[in-house]
């Protein structure tokens, strides 16, 4: 999933309070929120995001859960397919990392103001300038 601009160059992740979602965008966001709606997947995402270097091997994730390896793989696959994780195979292990822009999209869509998530491509240039002026 990528951040795209729609008609009229409006960001795809305008806050819910400012713009109604179209059917396609609502479906994309629902997949992401649904993936995070499972406590195990939410814990996995948190564990990966908080791991040293921002990525974790399956061997780093598995010991924290009393689940079989196929179940862990299934949960990681759901997070990948939702666009929340990316992965890379290194030898026999797969390393997972959170996609920051995906989390920024979720934050931006739930925000009550546009441009409040600085790391998001959905941030308005006015918001970036204002945020930098405060620093």
Question: How would you sum up this structure, described in words?
Answer:
Helix content is 47%, strand content 11%. With 135 residues, it is mainly alpha-helical. Mean pLDDT is 77; it is low at 1-11 and 116-135.
Overall body shape: elongated
Question: Strand percentage, roughly?
Answer: 5-15%
Poorly predicted residue ranges? 1-11, 116-135
Helix count equals: 6
List the strand order in the largest sheet: 1-3-2
Q: Helix proportion of residues, in percent?
A: 40-55%
The helix-and-strand class reads mainly alpha
What is the makeup of the main sheet?
3 strands, antiparallel
DSSP strand count: 3
What's the N-to-C terminus distance?
Answer: 32 Å
Mean pLDDT comes to 77
Order of SSEs, N→C?
Answer: HHEHHEEHH
Radius of gyration: 17 Å
